Amino acid sequence: MSSSAVPGEIRAGRPGPSVIRSGRAIALVCAALFLLPGPVAGSGGSVQKVVRIPYREFNRLLVVDEDGRPRSGYAYDFIQTIATYAGWDVEYVPADSFSDCVKKLLAGEVDVFYDVSYTEERAK
User: Fold this and answer.
1) For residue 44, what is the DSSP state?
2) Torsion, Cα of 25, 26, 28, 34 (10° steps)
3) Using an 8 Å Cβ cutoff, are 38 and 83 in contact?
4) What are the DSSP calls for 71-97, one per residue?
5) CA angle 18, 62, 70 (to 5 degrees)
6) What are the structural domains of the chain?
7) How many whole angstroms separate alpha carbon 86 and alpha carbon 88?
8) Can you give the pTM of this predicted structure?
9) d(CA 118, CA 121)
10) pLDDT tens digits, one per residue of 103-116
11) CA–CA–CA angle 64, 123, 57 (5° rounding)
């Protein structure tokens, strides 16, 4: 069998670093979301857990309205969909930067942090 590529052929190989980092980030968010409890069963009603999430406006990932509240974007839609299924009441907590989001998470001011990916700057 020849090692040359055939047009239209899909070749298996190792995923690149960005794919691996993205996969790790998604796995981290999913694990965090899985560990947070949903509605309390048997309570006679649906009790929603308040989940605090830091936000900052960032490109199309999260877009805020004229009052500075999150209203649209990929991350917003993802979070709202999970909240619907998990029975969460999402409380968005404003943050100034990625570092501020991390500080809030470590201080217990927020519960979940989205959009965590590897960069050289963050590795320092």
Assistant:
1) S
2) 170
3) no
4) EESHHHHHHHHHHHHHTEEEEEEE-SS
5) 155
6) 46-123 (3.40.190.10)
7) 6
8) 0.59
9) 8
10) 999 999 999 887 77
11) 5
